[in-house]
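Each letter names a residue; the fold follows as tokens. Both lines appear below:
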Amino acid sequence: MPKMLLSFFVLLFSLQYAAQSKKFYNSGSATLPATVEALPFTYQNDLPLVEVTIGGKKHIFLFDTGAPTIISPATYKELRLKSISEGAIHDSQKNMRKEIFTKVPAMKIGNVTFNNIGAIVMDFSQPEFTCLKIDGIIGANQMAHLYWKINYADGKILVSNNIHLLKQNDFPVKIPFKPTRQKTPLIATSLLGRKVNLTFDTGFNGYFKLNNSIADVESNISKENYVVTEGVNAVSMYGGAKMEQEYEFLLNNFTLGEQKFENQIFDTGISNLIGNKFLRNYEYILDWKKSLVYLKPLEKEAHKSESFGFGYRFIKNKAFVVLVFKEKNIPLKLDDEILEINGISLENLDESTACHYYLNKIEKDLNKITVKIKRGKEFHTFA
């Protein structure tokens, strides 16, 4: 099977909306020993991860502007925290659950201490979270206490109480945002003739996402610049998206603030998002005091995206096809179990090996692959 233009991304992002008071999201403080602090930070699978210490125990948290701060039930129990209230939470796919709201007395990132931060207690049980060892989220309500300077290319996050020490005047692009109640930045723009608020979401590992009720792709985008997909194109806190027909397309130009951007990759879904595959081309500063994102371009990568026309997830340590391109003569079908890719078996995997192949896709750097699948009781091999 040869590669073709445009790709499916197994999307991993969490976008939480919580019915809670402004006081809850404004709570807490941050203490810095130095005027500027560098925080430990890794960038894996197009997601920024930070090491957090709570109660003397180290954790891996997702750095996620699209969510409030979140801790796991295990951390909640270990610290014997108290419930402030319970409320309904909607994830990015509009799935809803009732969760506990609490406050974390102290957590440390590097040398920075955060005190009495409002947090939601949620279970990180999705296999993608498990593989990345994520058991919490540093959310927008926590970030809003400081100024943040992030560069995915060199693995640096700098924080300060004084934005001038981060040299924001060296950043040529300023984009205003409007914070939600939980402090998540929303950036107003116009796309395909419609006004849209894009969530600035560092918990989203794609380029851009556009709500499918807004995106009339077939009327606005030339045929050679989009593909139609069928299946699940996103994974969020409470599971995968619904089985839907969606689009992935190339948008020639649009503006954020006063800055024009060209030839950016979008896919459709429920939410409107700006993600890390776009942001990794920039160094950026987040300023909640003036509600601005500052961007400084890095060396640009080509917005080239390739795929074999299908996407898969590991469910109970087995690889299943969850998305296919329509009208591209893809021989694979939804729910096919992938047994082999290029002779490498994906059968009888334990959790560790399944995670290895999720994080290190066999087909990632290949131009052609052979896939063996199980469909019902039948076995097929496609080359």
The chain has a mean pLDDT of 89. The radius of gyration is 21 Å. The CA atoms of residues 213 and 270 lie 8 Å apart.
